[in-house]
């Protein structure tokens, strides 16, 4: 079971990393014409589908992006690592 929870933690941390990379690229106004940047944007949009509309009241685009993509990054990292740590304590 530890191997499965380790895999879950790795995937969750990778998802958080993708979201963080997108936040940094967006804050630096990186062109989405680049295929890598475009892929990161598409992956981040999919990963943050559930949180993107939570911050529509924020009028600053950069702050809204930071919140809308930062929240799922934190959630994915916390949940993935909590599952892994919880499974390690049980076994």
DSSP strand tally: 0
Low-pLDDT runs of 5+ residues are none
Radius of gyration: 15 Å
Spell out the helices and strands N to C.
Answer: HHH
Q: Specify the structural class.
A: mainly alpha
Give the CA-based shape: elongated
Helix content: over 70%
- Strand percentage lies at under 5%
Distance between the termini: 8 Å
| Mean residue pLDDT | 92
Largest sheet: none
Helical stretch count? 3
What does the model show?
- The structure is a single chain.
- Helix 1 (2-27) packs across helix 2 (35-47) and helix 1 runs antiparallel to helix 3 (61-90).
- This protein has helices spanning 2-27, 35-47, 61-90.
- The chain is elongated.
- By secondary structure, it is mainly alpha-helical.
Task: Lay out the secondary structure.
Blueprint: H1 2-27, H2 35-47, H3 61-90
Helix pairs in contact: 1-2, 1-3
Keywords:
91 residues, mainly alpha, 76% helix, 0% strand
């Amino acid at each position: 079971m530890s191997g499965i929870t380790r895999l879950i933690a790795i995937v969750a941390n990778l998802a958080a990393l993708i979201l963080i990379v997108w936040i940094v690229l967006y804050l630096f106004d990186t062109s989405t014409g680049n295929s890598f940047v475009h892929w990161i944007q598409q992956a981040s949009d999919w990963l943050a589908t559930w949180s993107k509309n939570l911050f529509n009241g924020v009028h600053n685009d950069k702050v809204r992006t930071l919140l809308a993509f930062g929240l799922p990054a934190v959630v994915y990292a916390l949940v993935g690592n909590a599952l892994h740590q919880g499974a390690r304590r049980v076994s």
